[in-house]
Each structure stands twice: as structure tokens, then as C-alpha cells.
Design a protein that fits this description.
By secondary structure, this protein is an alpha+beta fold. Helix content is about 40%, strand content about 15%. The protein has 17 helices and 18 strands. β9 and β10 form a beta hairpin.
Length: about 575
């Protein structure tokens, strides 16, 4: 086991300027059209697949069947899955299955996904109202909420552990099963579950809604906006607005950073929802709020790996001491959600600065958050020099970062490429094969980046189609060059722009991008005397020994995700 010796900071001393954008400018390719080739990312995907298949569906389904009055086929998992957050991993699991199937076409994954959906449908039918959920005492809880009996705050709602956050995972699961795996059953269940929520909240005043939203509620506003787009029915967009927390939204609209002391991952999904609603409703103010939040977190509240928060909370932006001292450093869930927000922002403003952050966080936090051979996911990444991280196990660990971790390594193909009309964007240097079905083009990317500076592309299939190829020229690179079939191309692009080549491409064309990397120092954002050594976008680390790694692989205790060694 290698521990990390890092001294930090973070990229980007910039603040994005210009008018807020809500119109989609680029589109992403479906996961099934981007196949990973041999690389640490493909290895991570395969390791994740083995972890997913090691988990038992009937144990994940037990809370949903129990709350529907049905007899579970197996006991619930322990840890967070039988102490109040019952069912949240089941939601993440369905999302992970859906994306893994899209990415790999693995039929065993598809069969398991359908089993999970059929069992949830059985539970939904048994209740008869459209409800599906695993929170203990669910039916009584939602009866109280519907009656306006709301007792909310922090991680509590009417004496339950974040039931809104929990049910959001079920909503996201059904959405993902429809969007990634094409399940019509999932769509049917999703709409029924959303109609149920409309019924639950129809009699609540806006003030009661805002009071309820003081309890952590994930990205419910985002998923309800998704349902609006899926169905074309605006009533779901209105529901999404009602589930948008104004205490967070209003200061962001006014460019006010009031995040210090707040639970970080409670807020990030809310902002994803603001952006989603903004895009559907063409709401410039809500779009601006999402952008201001991203700028604030990325430029002022993040460290070198792209992560943020200490003990799950935003510390003062001008004081990173706790980041260096505490074993509970950046939380993986936070970066999972920051990448989701980044992807949405890039889609309406394809600015390289979004791609630079995405690359930084993907390599140094997300890819690094999975044990690369045995599997297992990380909750906290301590930034203190010489410390270590704790890895989950399939039978014992049911934390939030296990749920998002199951998803993280299924979808590495989602941001490598983007397209707009006759333009293809290359954002990440990850070995992959892209099938651009609309243009009948296949492009192969081969590289050992960041172990080498050269990235090679080959047009594997094309019928002499003319399009612009935009290769990202990262902000950290200097002196990049590009050649086509051995001939160096003239380009005036600077770091932070795209190297653009427009021509009629044919099968067999080869493009070579040389991307010089240098070792650089980055100072921690509060300007104290701590630095990270960087090589291109990669945080350099050194092995320091394996002593005192108590609890390296977590048990099922409540604090098993925290490193307790010296």
C-alpha cells in the first residue's frame, strides 16, 4: 500500500466572466459509443464491475420490500443500510448497473438490472400509491409530511435520517435505468413515483416546503426537472422549483459566498438542480447562481486533487489549516457531484477551464478513490502528509461514497469527447474508441498519458467527411504541437484553447498531439507554506511506508470509513 505525501494547492486563479449560458452548445456521446481501451481507466472500470457483481441484489432490495409490506428474500446489509439510511445503496446500485451496461454491454449486468427493477416494481405495486422507498417507517413518515407535520433540520426529518436524500437515490436510479439502459419499466415507475411526490406536497405551502428542505435532500430538484424533460409535462418542472432551497439559491444569485460551515455535499446537488432547471426554463439567474457556486468552490475552496471540504463541511476559504491537519479530508461524493455540475456547465459553455478542472479531479481524486486491484472505495482522502485512506468492502461498507463510488468508475467515457454539428471536441486523453454514428466515423485514441507526452489518434472509419477536430490544449501545457499524417500543422492556439484542424478526413488518417509537461509547484490557496508538486495535471506523491494503517479495509462500524491510525 502506498500512502500519499502531498503538499497542496489548487489550480485556477480565475473567475469565469461573461453572460450566463442556458442554451446547449455541445452534446455528449452515449456511453455505449465510447469504448475504453487498455489504461488505468479500463482497469478501474473492470475492478468496479467485479465489486458490483460481488454485491447481493436481494440484500439491497430488502428495505424496499419490507416497507412495502412484502417479505424480503434476504436480510439487509449492515452499516448504513440497517441503521436508518436503508435503501440508499440500492438506488446507487441501479444507477451503476445502468451505466455499466451502457459502457460495456455486459449481459450479466443487464439481467441483474432487470431483476432489481422488477423487484422494485413489485414493491411499488404492493403499496399502490406510486411510492417506493427503504426508509424505516416510510408510510407513517410521508403521512405526517402530507399533513404538514414537518420537523426538519440538518440530517433529520421527522426523526428519520435524511429520508429525502435517501429517496433521491431511488429517483435517480429509475431515471438512469431509463436514460442509460432504455428501460420503459423504469420510466413508468419514475413517473408514478414523481406523481406520488406531487400528491404528498400538493397541500404544503411554499414556506412549509422551504422548511422541509432544511433537511438534506440530495438533488431532488434535478431529478424532477429530468422528469419534466422526459415527459414534456411542465408540472414536473414546477415541482423541481418547489424543491429548490432558496436559502442557498438566493445568495448565489447575488454573488455572495455564504458556504463556510455548511455541509458541503448537501449543497452541491442542490446547485446541480439549479443548473438543470435553468437549462430547461432558460433562467439566466439560476444559471448564474450555478456558475458562481462552481467558481467559488473550484477557485477558492479546493485543493490540488480537485476535492473540497474537511469533516464534510466547507472550511473558511482563507484558512486551510484544518485541511492539512484533519484525517477527514476531501470527500469523494463532493467531487462526484462537482464533476456532474462541471459537465453540465461545459455543455452550455464549452470552455477549457471546465475541462481542466474535470481532468484534475478525475485523475487525482476519482480514479484514485478506488483500490486498483482488490477494489473498494474511499470516503475521505486525508491531505495531511504521510497519512492513508480507508477502503470499503462489499459486505461491510454502505457509506454514501460507496454508492457514488459504484457509479464513478462506470462512466469514464462520458466526457472524453463532445460534438456540435460538424465539430468534434477531444477533452480528455484517455485511450478509447469513439463511434460517431451520425457521421459514420470511428476515431481511436491511443496514449500512455500522463506517462508519456504524445497522444495519437487514428481515423479508423470515415467516408471522407469534413469536420473540425478540436484538441484540447490544456492550461498546464506549453509548446504543444500537432501533426496530421506526419505533417506539422500550423496553429495559433494558446494554452487554455483548442487546437483546431478542419479538413476532409478519411480512413487511415493519423493525428499526433505532442503535449509537453513540466514539473510545477502549486501553493495551497490560503498562501501558507505548503505546496503540491505537479507534473502536468497530476499531483505527484511518494510512498512513505505501511506502518500504523489501522482499519485499512473497513469493518461495518459507524466510523469504519475513517482512518484511525497514527
Amino acid at each position: 500500500m502506498k500512502t500519499i505525501l502531498i503538499t497542496y494547492l489548487f489550480l485556477f486563479c480565475f473567475l469565469l466572466t461573461g453572460k450566463a449560458q442556458t442554451q446547449q452548445e455541445v452534446s455528449y456521446f452515449p456511453l455505449q459509443d465510447v469504448k475504453l481501451l487498455e489504461s488505468p481507466f479500463l482497469q478501474a472500470q473492470q475492478t468496479d464491475l467485479h465489486y458490483i457483481m460481488a454485491m447481493e441484489p436481494d440484500r439491497l432490495l430488502a428495505p424496499f420490500l419490507r416497507e412495502a409490506g412484502l417479505t424480503p428474500k434476504a436480510p439487509s446489509y449492515t452499516n448504513w443500510e440497517n441503521t436508518g439510511l436503508d435503501g440508499h445503496i440500492g438506488g446507487h446500485y441501479i444507477s451503476a448497473l445502468s451505466m455499466m451496461y451502457a459502457a460495456t454491454g455486459d449481459t450479466a449486468i443487464y439481467r441483474r438490472l432487470n431483476y432489481m427493477l422488477n423487484e422494485l416494481h413489485r414493491a411499488q405495486q404492493a403499496v399502490g400509491t406510486g411510492f417506493i422507498g427503504g426508509t424505516p417507517g416510510s408510510l407513517q413518515l410521508w403521512k405526517e409530511i402530507k399533513a404538514g407535520n414537518i420537523r426538519a433540520g440538518g440530517f433529520d426529518l421527522n426523526g428519520k435520517w435524511v429520508p429525502l436524500y435517501n429517496i433521491h437515490k431511488t429517483y435517480a436510479a429509475l431515471r438512469d435505468a431509463y436514460l442509460y439502459a432504455g428501460s420503459d419499466l423504469a420510466r413508468q415507475m419514475l413517473v408514478a413515483l414523481t406523481d406520488w411526490m406531487i400528491d404528498i406536497t400538493a397541500g404544503l405551502t411554499d414556506q412549509q416546503m422551504q422548511d422541509m428542505l432544511r433537511s438534506e435532500h440530495g438533488g431532488l430538484n434535478e431529478t424532477f426537472a429530468d422528469v419534466a424533460e422526459i415527459t414534456g409535462d411542465k408540472k414536473y418542472l414546477e415541482l423541481a422549483r418547489r424543491f429548490s432551497h432558496k436559502v442557498i439559491l438566493d445568495p448565489l444569485v447575488k454573488d455572495e459566498d455564504r458556504l463556510t460551515g455548511m455541509h458541503a455535499n448537501t449543497q452541491i446537488p442542490k446547485v446541480i438542480g439549479y443548473k438543470r432547471i435553468a437549462d430547461l426554463a432558460q433562467d439566466q439567474n439560476w444559471d448564474h447562481a450555478a456558475r458562481f457556486f462552481w467558481n467559488t468552490v473550484v477557485n477558492h475552496r479546493s485543493v490540488c486533487i480537485g476535492g473540497n471540504s474537511v469533516r464534510e463541511h466547507f472550511h473558511p476559504a482563507d484558512k486551510f489549516t484544518s485541511m492539512l491537519n484533519d484525517v477527514q479530508g476531501p470527500e469523494t461524493c463532493n467531487t462526484y457531484n462537482m464533476l456532474r455540475l462541471t459537465k453540465m456547465l461545459y455543455q452550455t459553455s464549452p470552455d477549457i477551464r471546465f475541462a481542466d478542472y474535470y481532468e484534475r479531479a478525475l485523475y487525482n481524486h476519482i480514479l484514485a478513490s478506488q483500490q486498483p486491484t482488490k477494489g473498494g472505495f474511499v470516503y475521505f482522502t486525508p491531505m495531511r502528509p504521510g497519512h492513508y485512506r480507508v477502503y470499503s468492502q462489499p459486505e461491510t461498507s454502505m457509506w454514501c461514497c460507496v454508492g457514488s463510488g459504484l457509479e464513478n468508475h462506470t462512466k469514464y467515457g462520458e466526457f472524453i469527447y463532445a460534438h456540435a454539428k460538424d465539430t468534434l471536441y477531444v477533452n480528455l486523453f484517455i485511450p478509447s474508441r469513439l463511434t460517431w454514428k451520425e457521421k459514420k466515423i470511428t476515431l481511436v485514441q491511443e496514449t500512455r498519458f500522463p506517462d508519456e507526452e504524445q497522444i495519437r489518434f487514428r481515423v479508423e472509419k470515415s467516408k471522407k467527411k469534413a469536420f473540425s477536430l478540436k484538441l484540447r490544449y490544456p492550461s498546464w501545457a506549453k509548446g504543444a504541437s500537432v501533426s496530421v499524417n506526419g505533417k506539422v500543422q500550423e496553429t495559433n492556439a494558446q494554452p487554455g484553447e483548442y487546437l483546431t484542424i478542419h479538413r476532409k478526413w478519411k480512413a487511415g488518417d493519423e493525428i499526433t498531439l505532442n503535449m509537453p509537461m513540466q514539473v510545477a509547484l502549486e501553493q495551497i490557496p490560503d498562501r501558507e507554506n505548503f505546496y503540491a508538486f505537479m507534473y502536468g495535471p497530476i499531483v505527484l506523491a511518494s510512498p512513505t511506508g505501511t506502518e500504523n494503517m489501522d482499519g485499512l479495509y473497513a469493518d461495518d462500524s459507524r466510523g469504519g470509513h475513517i482512518a484511525h491510525g497514527k
